[in-house]
Each structure stands twice: as C-alpha cells, then as structure tokens.
Amino acid sequence: MRVLALESSCDETSAAVISGTAQSPRLESLVILSQDVHRIFGGVVPEIASREHLTAVVPVTRQALADAGRTLDDVDAIAVTHAPGLVGALLVGVSYAKALAAARGLPVLGVHHMEGHLFATALEHPEATPPFTALLVSGGHTLIIDVADWGSYRLLGRTRDDAAGEAFDKTAKLLGLPYPGGRHIEALAAEGDPSRFRFPRPMLHGGQRPGDGDYYDVSFSGLKTAVLLAVRASDDLARDRPHLARGFQDALVETLVTKTVRAAEVEGRRRIVLGGGVACNRTLAAAMQAAADRLGARVFAPTPRLATDNAAMIGAAALFRLARGERHDATLNAHATLPMPGLVDATTSPR
Ligand code: KG4
Ligand code: ZN
Questions:
Q1: Residue ID of nearest Cα to ligand 1 atom 12
Q2: Ligand 1 mean position, distance from CA 136 (Å)
Q3: Is the pTM of this model over 0.90?
Q4: Which of 129, 85, 131 shows the shortest CA–CA distance to 110?
C-alpha cells in the first residue's frame, strides 16, 4: 500500500509519500512548506493561512511525488487531515484530496491531526510503538494519553485552559520574542538562572492521588499571568529576560514531566512518546528521561521535522486505518473540532 498524504490544518502545507504498513512504514518523501507570513502578525491569521495553502498545495504535492520518484499512478490511496484545525485551512487539503481521489478513482481517508502526532515518532524510532504513554504538546493541544494499541486510546489528562505551545508563545510575546516563541524561550532559558524566578507549578501538589480530577490535568493560564506580573515588576527587563524564560520553562516542564510520568507509572508503561511542536524542546525531553529512569522507562521524542505539523504522520496513521478497511467518500468534510477516533475518557472508561 502506498499513500499520498496531505496536511493543511494550520500554517504548514505538507505532502508525503509513505508505503508499507503501520508496523513497518517506509517514508518515501516529505515536503513541508511553513507559512512565514504569520510572523508579521504575531500569530496565525486564518484567512491568510487558507490562501497560502491554496497557492502551495499543488506544487508541494508535486514535489513530494517527484522526491519519491513516483507519480499518481503509483499511489493506492489519498490521506488528508480533516480535523481538528482552522476549518478554512483544512478545507483546502480536504477539497484537493477529494478532487485527486475522484479524478484518479482512488480511496480517500480523512485523518485526525492528533492521531497523526501519535504516529510521528514511530517513523524515526521503530520502538515508539504501543503500548506507551503519550504526551502530545502543540500550539492547540496538551494531552496525556494511554496508548494500549494503535486505535485504542484513553485520555488521562489535558489542559484546562492554555495549551503548552500557546503558553510558550504568549510568554514569548510578553518577553518581546518573535512568534512562534517556543524555541526562542528555550534558547534564552539556557542562559537563565533557575533560582531568580520561581513560578507556581499549576495543578501540581503532593496531596494529589490517582482518581483525583487534577491528577493528570494541567493548567497554564495562571503561569502566564505570573510571568506577566513579574515582567511588570521588573526594573530591568533586558537583564531579567533569560531568568524569566528559565523560571517559566522550569515550571511548565516540571508540571508536564510529573504528570506524564505519573501516567506511565499508574498504567505500567515502559515507553513514553512525545509529540507535537513542543516536543522539539530538548529540555523537556531530557527532564522527561531523567524522571522516567526511576520507572526504567524510555522516552522517545521526534526530531523537529516530525514533531511539528507534517504530512508523514498523517500518512503513517492512514496506513493503520486503511489496512483496517476504513475509507471516506466524497462527503468527507473539514471540522474545526472532532473527537479523536478510538479515544475514550479514562474517567468514564476505566481500564
Ligand atoms: O504541533 P505544532 O507544529 O503546531 C500545532 O499543531 O499547534 O506546534 C507548534 C508549537 C508552537 O506553540 C511553538 O512555539 C512550539 O510548538 N514549539 C516549541 C519549540 N519548538 C516549537 N515549544 C517549546 N520549545 C521548543 N523548542
Ligand atoms: Zn499539530
């Protein structure tokens, strides 16, 4: 089975050719075009994102086929992100995928973007396969998921307000750093003194027990406010910036690490898989591995190319679902929000 996969849910236009099986995928090509224009506005402008996808989707797809040394004649199915994301941006990929499928008589499959992130790491680390504990941290989502098997997901924890990437981006803005700010905060924090600012660890305290509503959930809006107050109180922001970045990152990382390792321990998992743009953060991966050592667990993080939005992960998830006989038809639509297939809430569906 060879799949042409497309991703256009936010500000990356991406296409990939992938073949093989979900257990043993072969990435033949991956093209990612990042929309730089949003930097001017300090955030993704949905209308502009849609227009940029429209311009890019055909050449990006052609390039992915060319890089793989393939044509549409070699493709068995088209996969496309159909949710969640910016609906206008998603529509570009979905419409193009449906048109290609109709013209070529090929099956089309809509893939959930967050399920794609779950599959990304396995493309680089063949051992990053179920069962594992997943931490998905992107600009829009923060999820701790127990992955018993591909397609079998239990949601243990999530953010009650800001996503981890959103917290990085908003804090970066407060510190006058460019958008998207995650990697700038990480670089600045490396020069920061960890003892200068100690920010609250949101929803983290020793009295929590498994079964408590806040045992795995996180919340980052208070942390962002704490940084804002510290920025306002600073009499020399240029001097304090690295220390503020360090204090923020330490609080966020400790929270994510503690909650994720709790999940691995309770579920008895020996593998922790990171995904989403914030998984680019080396400090997070290193802290996660240090904490996971206690359980004898291994942490797998994708390289930035596969951590951030890309079509390879959509193709990898599609290989799994297509092999199960799943298909969509011309009624496939784009959805800003949609539950992830196979995901149940752990509080209502205990193991
Ligand atoms: O998964 P992604 O590419 O797009 C979404 O689906 O949201 O994630 C983008 C997010 C941004 O918030 C960005 O600031 C963050 O990933 N990010 C990082 C780092 N690199 C990217 N956050 C922390 N540290 C990094 N090194
Ligand atoms: Zn994403």
A1: 165
A2: 11
A3: yes
A4: 85
